[in-house]
Amino acid sequence: MTNRVPVPLAKAYRLMNHGPTVLVSSRHGDAVNVMAAAWSMPLDFDPPKVAVVIDKNTLTRSMIEGSGEFALNIPSRELARLTLQVGSTSGREVDKFAAFNAGAWTGEQVGAPLLDGCLAWLECRVLPEPHIQNTYDLFLGEVVAAWADPAVFADGHWNMAAGGKKSIHYVAGGHFFETGEAFEVPDSPR
Amino acid sequence: MTNRVPVPLAKAYRLMNHGPTVLVSSRHGDAVNVMAAAWSMPLDFDPPKVAVVIDKNTLTRSMIEGSGEFALNIPSRELARLTLQVGSTSGREVDKFAAFNAGAWTGEQVGAPLLDGCLAWLECRVLPEPHIQNTYDLFLGEVVAAWADPAVFADGHWNMAAGGKKSIHYVAGGHFFETGEAFEVPDSPR
């Protein structure tokens, strides 16, 4: 089981503000699936919204269009290999959860599976915008519940200390960066 | 002067794929401005496109809507303080380039100033989508030229080695992460 505590919706944007690569999970009827997405970002604070690019050719695309729901999962470095695996195979050909031995739990607001071992999770409902979905593969969602592993995110703040779990940032060709040193600019203007 | 070399457009997405915080610069007529944006992402590979959130209340918003152009600048950790400064003041009240002693150069395709000391730059033309601009403050752009400091990005690959320049990832309240250790997943599935 993965440790998790609820994150207040007004703080949910902080889970993605630093630009980590995410896993997009979905459920439609009895089917579940998961893919990787480096192209996602927060879109608003409260109620929190997100934007994510979901290619037309993916099974995830049809499942999200069918269910009107998805979840964004923020993987740790330990899940980098899984991130590549689910990003390079199609749910039309394999049951990725079985093939890659990925466990999951179910959240409270949407049916999409939430992957074990992630650092944080955002349950989302699609904000239907057919024109940009069709033209740019761009999906907007409202975050309706959020969760985090309290070892790395508590009281609205990340605590990714040296030697602990880190989120990851995909570049290309199997290359990632991990999230690096935290720092604060002294005398911040606000 | 800032060292820079052109980045082929097909590789431009790699400049932003890891989710760094960016500076959004703009020129309209004789006026120039710059703001910070943690909420930006690639939107397509080739031709490269980007998405960025630009609040209605910013001067940048009216300048981009007026000119149809903008640039995304990827600051190094040395520019974290400048990132906060330009993110917490309005170009309606101060000339940010003068007030914060920020130098800039001019690219080849758009008029927006490109800030000295950044790691990479993407010159962009707005893809007009009035509905999502008005509803979500969400702007889409096509990248029409891209540049990078060859010390950190060469031959389509980042080289942010330990001790060298790093991009940054804003969280909230003056807190950032720097881009951390690069790693490759062995036997990547593709």
Automatic annotation (TrEMBL), chains A, B:
SMART domains per UniProt: Flavin_Reduct (SM00903)
Gene3D superfamilies: Electron Transport, Fmn-binding Protein, Chain A
GO molecular function: FMN binding; oxidoreductase activity, acting on the CH-NH group of donors, NAD or NADP as acceptor
Source domain of life: Bacteria
Keyword Flavoprotein annotated: yes
Stretches assigned to the Flavin reductase like domain: 14-160
Listed cofactors: FMN
InterPro entries the record matches: Flavin_Rdtase-like_dom (IPR002563), Flavoredoxin (IPR052174), Split_barrel_FMN-bd (IPR012349)
SUPFAM superfamilies hit by this protein: FMN-binding split barrel (SSF50475)
Key words, A-Z: Flavoprotein
Keyword Transmembrane in record: no
Family: Belongs to the flavoredoxin family.
Name of protein: Flavin reductase (DIM6/NTAB) family NADH-FMN oxidoreductase RutF
